[in-house]
Amino acid sequence: MAGHGFPVPRFEGVSQEQFIEHLYPQRKPLVLEGIDLGACTSKWTVDYLSQVGGRKEVKIHVAAVAQMDFISKNFVYRTLPFDKLVLRAAEEKHTEFFISEDEKYYLRSLGEDPRKDVADIRKQFPLLEGDIKFPKFFKEEQFFSSVFRISSPGLQLWTHYDVMDNFLIQVTGKKRVVLFSPRDAQYLYLSGSKSEVLNIDNPDLAKYPLFSKARRYECSLKAGDVLFIPALWFHNVISEEFGVGVNVFWKHLPSECYDKTDTYGNKDLTAASRAVQILDRALKTLGVFWCVLISFYQNWTLRGMNFT
Fold it and tell me: Domain JmjC spans what residues (predicted)?
């Protein structure tokens, strides 16, 4: 199935007005080229990051295989000083390692207290803040988080969705991203917000027969590209080489719509969560209505949320 997806459209030199008025309301992924991101795309080399990023301990995922699975947890959590992580993640083989000499590393930066604080590169990596400019395509008060990401070459993240709009800024390196519309959720064999299908290029169709019906959208990101991922769009990210990315999430709905305990931006909206709770209670006493309620919930969360 590799290479048979629909290409994600690319636009160069898009202004704030063009994005907000014409592209954003379509609620579809797109790649922006030529955005002023600051000096990071040229400065953030392995040497620079390891020297300037500091020795602060960071929590990382370590996996013995390239395809990471958040459902079965085929990885372990470890901590490394940031400068050591950068050096190790850039290596193909490791002289120092936790599991194996070809293990893969993945950093998804966290807030100071991950249970209370969101990730913000401006707070966790202040010496790098001045190098990067975020696209000003949303209001400052909508800003939720900026997530610093580092991936080993070949690492593939599981297919999942987030409940907020976000820009994936590819600062250095190359990524391949495969996306699926929320409308195709019924074909993705979901466990929560994550798909059970790990090998999206050569899926086991005997085990996941409906997956072949999911329409995939694909793009390759190079340094300086910005991918707009609308809320609820599923995405699978493959790091084709060592690279650094920054996700910027923003609230496209009123703040009260979001779970106040959500520091990652991936918990279901509060109204949807309440609907599930109501549904659970109703099922115990009003079994006759369960089909109607499930249909309503699925349509509301996966089809009806056409935010503009």
Answer: 123-267
